[in-house]
Amino acid sequence: xxxxxxxxxxxxxxxxxxxxxxxxxxxxxxxxxxxxxxxxxxxxxxxxxxxxxxxxxxxxxxxxxxxxxxxxxxxxxxxxxxxxxxxxxxxxxxxxxxxxxxxxxxxxxxxxxxxxxxxxxxxxxxxxxxxxxxxxxxxxxxxxxxxxxxxxxxxxxxxxxxxxxxxxxxxxxxxxxxxxxxxxxxxxxxxxxxxxxxxxxxxxxxxxxxxxxxxxxxxxxxxxxxxxxxxxxxxxxxxxxxxxxxxxxxxxxxxxxxxxxxxxxxxxxx
Length: 270
What we know:
The chain has 270 residues and is mainly α. It has helices at 10-24, 26-51, 56-68, 71-93, 107-139, 151-163, 167-190, 194-221, 228-269.
């Protein structure tokens, strides 16, 4: 395939960089998927089988519950996100002439490449767990698997829960989600070793959770539950805290996004 024309456009360079990133680490990522299948599927099934006195129905039922309540999907997603963070850290801090930071492409193109490659890894993970769910639904006893046992049932329930939230709460949730994505990436860009990056992520999470919890506790401690007027005041204070939180998170997310751009540009110039 002649790719010379792709080098002349920004989208073409992003496509080539993303393709190279995915194919270059595909083997290690598939091995990682196999390890996750053993850890999250085979090992729990075997443990439940032994704990139940080798009752297949009990073991399958326990695993089915992990599918239906989203625990398995969350575990897979979190593990894949950790893998992607380690991959980003190694990608930008590799010291060799063909390093990612030395490739003739703009910082924005490289950020887009990392984002698309991460989405590709997450898509592969979703496909893997979908295939596992289908295989499980075929081999599990009829007493365990019912008509509602499908992976997209979890997604439908999640969309329903989010849909019941008010617009302000959805904005707060979106701000928190963006923060949970961009903050770890920034930490990985600033530290050459993934372990140090994860330590920084842990400290920031503790700080953010601590501040949020202390403010919520303060609001509740100042409220009295003797009459409905105080309950209304409590509701107004909680909404005020939520709005302040959303505003701060929007500013913080913008600052972190710029920090990612600046840090990658700084590394690229070294």
